[in-house]
Design brief:
By secondary structure, this protein is mostly helical. The protein has 9 helices and no strands. The C terminus is likely disordered.
Length: 196
């Protein structure tokens, strides 16, 4: 194995471990000592790959910043599917909320790069809604995309407090009301798809 491949494999091991621990226990609660010990490497080895904990936090969040995969499913099905996926994710039992919001809340540092990455994620998701709404012919897709994003964010927050995945279904129903009000006549309340 080439040296670059070994380095890349070690970086991936570090990031996988950091992701699991940061998301599961919290960024502030998990130190680089814990991550290094979990992997079985020295702190020095970890710092050779990520010079500071802040660098590791940025890499962790950047790794999670993935665009929604393209789909040829109808726009309305994709929009409502986002709420269905959220419900399934909440129901896994390992859901701890949005990792980007968690990072901003934990770090409480407005100048930290985590804030920029969190904003990029939220804007990426809002734009995803906006493009789908434009495909549906919605006149004010910009405003409605923000409203749908707020429904998702609200469902995430409510799920953390209530521990109930059905909050995503309630958010889905609210999305249907908004879509109907915007002129989407083909939207129906039920049945929800079992998978997407």
């Amino acid at each position: 194995m080439a040296r670059a491949d070994v380095r890349a494999a070690m970086q991936e091991r570090i990031l996988e471990t950091a992701d699991r621990l940061f998301y599961g226990q919290g960024i502030r609660a998990v130190g680089v000592d814990t991550i290094a010990a979990e992997i079985g490497i020295s702190k020095r080895t970890l710092y050779n790959h990520f010079p500071s904990k802040d660098d590791l936090i940025v890499a962790y969040l950047t790794r999670r910043l993935k665009p929604a995969p393209p789909s040829d499913r109808p726009p309305l099905e994709q929009i409502l599917g986002a709420f269905d996926r959220l419900e399934r994710t909440i129901a896994t039992g390992v859901f701890r909320g949005c990792p980007f919001v968690n990072a901003v809340a934990e770090l409480k540092e407005p100048a930290h790069a985590a804030n920029r990455i969190a904003l990029a994620f939220k804007e990426q998701r809002r734009t995803w809604f906006q493009v789908l709404l434009q495909q549906l012919g919605i006149a004010d897709a910009d405003s409605l995309s923000m409203q749908l994003q707020i429904l998702i964010d609200g469902a995430i927050a409510a799920a953390i407090v209530r521990g109930d995945p059905k909050v995503a279904a309630a958010a889905r129903e609210a999305a249907i009301v908004l879509l109907k009000a915007a002129g989407v006549s083909s939207v129906r309340r039920t049945p929800r798809p079992l998978s997407s």
